[in-house]
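note to self — DONT lose this again. spent like an hour looking for the file last time. sequence + predicted structure for the chain T wanted, 113 res
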Amino acid sequence: MVALSRNVSRKAAMEMLLTGEMISAEDAARIGLVNRVVRPDVLEPEAMELAEAIARKPRATVKIGKPAFYRQLEMPLSEAYDYASRAMTENMLHAEAVEGICAFLEKREPKWP
C-alpha cells in the first residue's frame, strides 16, 4: 500500500487497493505505475537503450540529482524547494555544466570531461 500510494494518484491507488483487481500494462503506464510498456521481445534492448542514455549523462549530475530527487520527496514543499535549489546550484558549479551549456548553445553534442 505504501509504495503504491506514493507512486500513483490517490484515486488510482484506492481503486486498486479496494478492488484487488489486476490492471493491464497500458493502464499501469497511464496511471504512472510504470514508465513505459514494451513487448517482451524488445524488453532487453529497450532497457539497455535507457541505461545507455543515462550512462551518457554527466556523472556528477546523476550523482547529485538522483539522491536529491528522492530526498526532496520526503520534505515539506518549502523545504524541498530550498533543498532542490542548493542541489541545482551545486550541479551548476561542475565543469560538466559549463560543457553542457556550451554544447547546447553551439548546437552540438557535449564532450563530457
